[in-house]
């Protein structure tokens, strides 16, 4: 038996994050490990409405602080409404993005004060801290190749300089919190990446067995 855990998946768009979540969820199902999955922004009725506002290209005039507060509002609703209750009931919670994305995109990408963002992150996340975070890293050139001709949302259409700042932000987060963050080379094959994710998850399970 394991205690409740919060596992988050992070990375720039095109890094393979969502694909690896699918692999991970399938593996958990095969191993009879009960998990629940949420996404950011969104996950709740209120959060999904905020998501539409944030990602719509029609809102290109959105200011950086407005963007930051909207992401944080969606996260707070998700944490209070779904994530904390799931953890309190003993479940393992998987989240497709969490506050590290805010630090990377709005902090390192937009240049908003990191001390302010760290404080806001704690409030928005209702003081929840992930037990394990996977950050998938790929070069920006690989990001453009992978995204190809698919229709992009407002954040995905940002210029290359912004995307590189976000990538470097994720790398700095990984370097600053090695005990929580597992940095993974997203250019490896999907199977190799999935194996690395599963191995690190199992290391965490061994540490928290009760």
What does this structure look like?
The protein is an alpha/beta fold. The chain has one domain (5-208): 3-Layer(aba) Sandwich (Rossmann fold), CATH 3.40.50.300. 55% of the residues lie in helices and 13% in strands. The chain contains eight helices and five strands; from the N terminus they run βαβααβααβααβα. The protein has helices at 17-30, 45-55, 64-88, 99-109, 114-124, 140-147, 160-176, 190-208, and strands at 5-11, 35-39, 92-96, 132-137, 181-185.
Report Rg. Answer: 16 Å
Low-confidence stretches: none
End-to-end Cα distance, whole Å, is: 6 Å
- Give the full name of the CATH homologous superfamily: P-loop containing nucleotide triphosphate hydrolases
How many helices does DSSP assign?
8
State which percent range the strand residues make up: 5-15%
Mean pLDDT: 95
SSE blueprint and pairings:
Elements: E1 5-11, H1 17-30, E2 35-39, H2 45-55, H3 64-88, E3 92-96, H4 99-109, H5 114-124, E4 132-137, H6 140-147, H7 160-176, E5 181-185, H8 190-208
Parallel strand pairs: 1-3, 1-4, 2-3, 4-5
Helix pairs in contact: 1-8, 2-3, 3-5, 4-5, 4-7
Defining traits:
210 residues, alpha/beta, Rossmann fold, single chain
Give a nutshell description of this structure.
The protein has 8 helices and 5 strands.
